[in-house]
Amino acid sequence: MHITPGPTRYAVRNVDTAEFACQLFLTPSLLQQIIDWTNKEGRLVYGHQWADVDNIEMHRYLGLLILAGVMKGHNESVM
Questions:
Q1: pTM
Q2: Per residue in 3-36, pLDDT tens?
Q3: pLDDT > 90 in the chain, percent
Q4: Which of 16, 40, 48, 53 has the highest local Cβ count within 10 Å?
């Protein structure tokens, strides 16, 4: 079986933003589960000092993680 590397025809046809490309791997329901469990753990560990993480904040955090991984992959300092 031969698989051509690169994006699939579905991805080429339907992905027009970086956000939608991420949603192919991280669905909104999965992201909501991550947010819910993050907030539960935060409340358990930090109590009333914990400020709930929302959808926007989680997207920004994940974006920074991806950026740090990309920069580290090119031997760039992430600090």
A1: 0.70
A2: 778 778 877 887 888 778 777 788 889 999 999 9
A3: 39
A4: 53
Burial 15-53 (b: 16+ CB within 10 A, else e): beeeeeebeeeeeeeebeeebeebbeeeeeeeeeeeeeb
Query: Which structure tokens are listed for 66?
Result: 């991806």
State the residue for tokens 């000092």. 49
Average pLDDT over residues 62-70: 83
Cα(13)–Cα(22) distance, integer angstroms: 15
Q: Phi/psi of residue 10, each to 5°?
A: -60, -45
How far apart, in whole angstroms, are the C-alpha atoms of residue 79 and residue 31? 27
Tokens, residue 32? 């909501």
